Amino acid sequence: MKRTHIILLVFIAISIGLLVSFMGNLSTYETIASARQKEGKNVTIIARLDNSKPMEYNPVKDPNYLSFYILDTLGSQARVVYHYGKPYDMEKAERVVLKGKMNGDVFEISQKDGILIKCPSKYKDDPEMAKKNLNKTQ
Question: Based on the structure, what is the number of domains in the chain?
């Protein structure tokens, strides 16, 4: 084989190795049921807060412990334990994106950036507010 063929084969092998290693980092969103089937593995869940259940956070007792309940789009429910302080305006969240592991019936988040809060937009169409703002400018 020529030297250029060998270099080309090595380059192709390295490229394939890099692509395969990046494929391992691609994450998909799971439901609570599928996360329970993958117990102990890191998964990402999109859910909404279950406001019918209490949120447990006492910064005096333990500022690095937050517990709350979530509901996914299929109606499954799970308790979530977050080992950091409570994110700001969490009660106003429409949805939450959680990165962690299922441990029995509890979804545990051990990374500081394991919760992403999706708050409602302040720019939603509100006809009454639009009329008030229009009257103010005239």
Answer: 1
